[in-house]
Amino acid sequence: MKKKTILLYSAIGLSILNVQMIGQAQSLTRSTVNEKTKPITSFGKNHKVGGLIQTFIIQSQATQSQSTSQNGSLGSSGLTAKKTVLGATNLPSLWNPLNPTSANYGKTTPVLNQEDLNICWDYAGVDAIDTSAMKQLGTTEDLLPAYYDYLSASNAFSNKSNPLAVMNTDGTSRKLGDGNTIDYVPEMSVIGYNPMLPNNSFSQDMTMAQDVPINNSLFNSLKLSNYHVNDTYILPGLTTNQFPTTNAAIMTRINQIKQLVYQYGSAQFGVQAEYTLDYSENPTTAVYSHLAANKDFTSYTPYSAKMNSDLATTYNNQTYINQDHEMEIVGYDDNYSANNFSKKPGMNGAFIVKNSWGTDWGNGGYFYLSYADIFLAASDIYADGVINNNGETIYSSTNTSPNAVGTYYDFGYAQGSTSNSNIFSNTYNSQSTSGSQIEILNSISTDIEEAGAKVKLLYKVGAVTNSTKLSDFQTLGTYTFTDPGYQTIPFNAITLPRNSQYSIAFEVTNLTNYQTFPIPYESVQTSSSGQYPVIQAKNSWMDIDNEWVNASVNQGTNLFIDGQTSMSNVDLSTYHPIYRLYNSRNREHLYTADLNEATTLPKLSRDWKYEGITWQAPQSSSLPIYRIYNPKSGEHLYTKDTNEVRVLVGSGWKNEGIAFYSAGNLAIYRLYNPNAGVGSHFMTSSLSEKNALVKSGWTDEGIAWFGM
């Protein structure tokens, strides 16, 4: 067979000068292997190999070990623990949807047929979501594979270009029917591009003649499915020098794959189809695939095949096993006999693999793959965490999957990082809410490529700037990526200020444990550049060795850090008004929840002027606002900072207790004017009033608390 060509995506990353500016962070590209287009013949029918574009980072990679306890855990500030990954000893020895004696017998989705299309990645990725939903949610839907084919093709639409297209490995834009990466389908769902359902114009099984440009209005009319991928879990593929050398070592990785299949319903992986499935018309002469005596279609490619020049690719002193076809692992059998394989693997056990070549291929579309098969070691293994769509809003600075872009910043001690922790942040603008409606930030998602990475989730009101400090952020929780992947991390809900900037971030707290630590980014592209996807500069920042860098503006890169929000209605009967008064003599503003105080003061002195209701405050919340009084000057000060209360009381101020509480969607701003005397601090819920005072010389101290 013809040897594969290694091509690199264009690296639009850091110049040498910029590398020095941000603490030796390097820019990587993923190496990619072109998809096969040659049809193969197996059991009497022609099929496209699939179109999987293999990807890997050109760096040494340590063998990853999957957790046997938890997929991740939130810190003390978190609410929800992630699902537990069962240890191998707790798994059943048989988990085979084709075997009547298995507990999951018959729990399958229909076998699809990609016909003559080169989009195995699309069929396997979409059906994996459906299969995973069946296991995790107990429901299934007929999903449309063609959706992601159109979503990522530059010629998808007959009446306009597609800004979401991706690039092929030869530097051209991807066209309908071209290959794509194994991560594309599930991770596009993570950032909000969820599966669609078939209709009269699009069936599940399509042919090349049907895979043609359409009017984008037809594409936009597709009906959304009920599924959303919120987590991807990855068991990274190994280079040949990392392959296990004993049966016990092989079973360590096999048990990790079994855990993913059992818990999440399926796992996606890549093979070289000409090896795994062969291309001989006579299965009795096939080299690696085999029709066993019991009529099972089996396959086993031994580790020794890594010596074949058309299977292995060496780059940067690392050797990788090429893959061109994506499929799903849907079950396993620990006791499946080694005698069922053409070449005896020396150990029992097989995975049940689902293909996308229709039911007239293999065992109704399935086959058995030996535990000792080389591709189970060489391929990235992906599993999907699936939830129901819940009408959430996803804030994202990127519009494609990390592998489809293929560009990464690299940190870690090999790149000279001097700090054990760096911060990566995106700033977004919240929605305009009104009345009793509030927008709640529930979770943050990001892509981490290293197992064991520990992150701290951060949040702040307002945008990140060059002068932002770590203390400006609120810690939402901590999380450990025991499995790499694009994962969504929940925490105690945060109410966002309406129509205001807010920033979410994650701080990696154990960077120096890693020789390399890749952080994916998407390069800013214009429609005239000829590069895809088209995306504008957003507001991504990196704090590298204690120095903030505006990645979007200075580097032309947007980071993969997303926020998920939902809308909620507040019971306004639990809120009460906050009244504002002004003292014309000492120029102080008074804020009170006490109607009697608000009405009595103007009667006691003409100096006090009632200015009405300025916001609504909750009757109770977890964030009290304190009022302190200076008996010498007559000034009142309002603060949520207990340390500020303690310091001022120590210098002669009087603590008058809790004045009211903070909660809601309305930002309350605090301003300071040292020349104003007694009224040097001022609070307002009016953005225009705040801006006018800033123009006249007041200092904006930011959002102090919230109301309705």
| Uncertain parts | 1-24, 31-47, 58-86
Nearest-angstrom radius of gyration? 29 Å
Work out the helicity level.
10-25%
Beta-strand segment tally: 38
Number of helices: 13
Percentage beta strand = 25-35%
Give structural notes.
The structure is a single chain. The strands form ten sheets. Strands 6, 8, 9, 10, 13, 14 and 15 form a seven-stranded mixed sheet that branches. The protein has 708 residues and is an alpha+beta fold. 15% of the residues lie in helices and 33% in strands. It is built from 13 helices and 38 strands. The longest helix is centred in the middle third of the chain and has 18 residues, at 247-264.
Helices and strands in order:
Blueprint: E1 6-8, H1 16-21, E2 26-33, E3 40-42, E4 45-47, E5 54-57, E6 94-95, H2 120-136, H3 146-151, H4 184-190, H5 216-220, E7 227-235, H6 247-264, E8 267-271, H7 273-276, E9 289-291, E10 297-299, E11 312-315, E12 318-321, E13 325-333, E14 350-354, E15 366-370, H8 374-378, E16 381-388, E17 393-395, H9 402-405, E18 407-411, E19 422-429, E20 437-448, E21 453-461, E22 474-481, E23 485-496, E24 501-508, E25 517-523, E26 540-543, E27 548-550, H10 551-555, E28 557-559, E29 561-569, E30 575-583, E31 588-592, H11 595-604, E32 608-618, E33 624-630, E34 635-639, H12 642-650, E35 654-661, E36 666-672, E37 681-684, H13 687-695, E38 699-707
Parallel strand pairs: 10-15
Antiparallel strand pairs: 1-2, 2-5, 2-18, 3-4, 6-13, 7-16, 8-13, 9-10, 11-12, 13-14, 14-15, 17-29, 18-25, 19-24, 19-26, 20-23, 20-29, 21-22, 21-24, 25-28, 26-27, 30-31, 30-32, 33-34, 33-35, 36-37, 36-38
